[in-house]
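User: I'll paste a sequence; please echo it back and then give the predicted structure.

Assistant: Echoing your sequence first, then the prediction.
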Amino acid sequence: MKSHFFSVIRHSLLLGLLIATGCAQAQPALKDVFKDHFLIGAALNPSQFTEANTAQAALIKKQFNSITPENVMKWEVIHPAPEHYDFGPGDRYVAFGVANGMFIIGHTLVWHEQTPPWVFENGHGGPTDRATLLARMSNHIHTVVGRYQGRVKGWDVVNEALNEDGSLRQTPWLKIIGEDYLVKAFEFAHAADPDAELYYNDFSIENESKRQGAIALIGKLQAAGVRVTGIGIQEHARLDWPSPELVDDTITAFGKLGVKVMITELDFNVLPARFNDRSADVSHREAADPRLNPYTNGLPDSVQQSLARRYGELFAVYVKHSQIVERVTFWGVTDGDSWLNNWPIVGRTAHPLLFDREGRPKPALEAVIQAWKPAQKP
């Protein structure tokens, strides 16, 4: 039955792409196409939510009904010094979402990256103690979540706490507080806003070992009695990974935990890699190499069609599981503002999203729309 489902998907997508090739008819907005299935979101930067970039702001309003802040709610931006919070960018982000009736996500409260060193240090430059770090975590979460209570509807509470083998990362949070730092983070977030949805978010949890680690982590949070609403599958994908079957198995496994599933940071890295690394660890960096930046003048048609096919395959799986999948969020709006232009190599020309650098729809957009159709009854 499952193999038949995926063969139908691939046949339908191929037919849809053939029909769409050369067609210039206007596509419906993504949020309208999937309104009966799940929210459609995008990660935003300040030029977009302040509407300094008017064209992209208009595109966002048309296509999306959920938003995530790419960076402005991360600790280093919103709480850069012990006694200083900078709420300006976060306030403007939330105001944009409220004004446009969007489901607003807060990202992220507890992470080992983009967190200032002072958070983990004592007054002498060494590591602080458990009680002090818990107090700092509590203050930060209560202050930030409390400020946006009732407006931010869901929070990525803990981000990327797992290694690829499913074990807990040896982050300062774990080393100083211990394994219960995850429980404490969710407890603090729930106390700050009892109605907010609370998520655990991570990359490459489609892979079996890490998936099992995530299942165990969610199980421990549930056993501790804390509110955990859902799990975020980041889905930083490549043309050869993950397969639709792997995504199907992953969503099914998480659904059995009784939590919602969000696709939180969807994009496709179409550029060649020096290593077969399917992670999205922001600490990983590589030296520039022209051979790893081959598409500076645009994607060849063959790669463009491969990208479209892959987007369509994954969206067909999301639609199949729309009773579990609550939201699908792209990590960016257009190719030009994607983080993949500067990761893991700075200065490359990436093509990971549905809209090109001018905000024009790519064939992948039509493939995503076509993916909705096999799920409809004749």
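The mean pLDDT is 93. The beta strands are 39-44, 66-69, 103-110, 152-159, 197-202, 230-233, 236-238, 260-269, 325-330.
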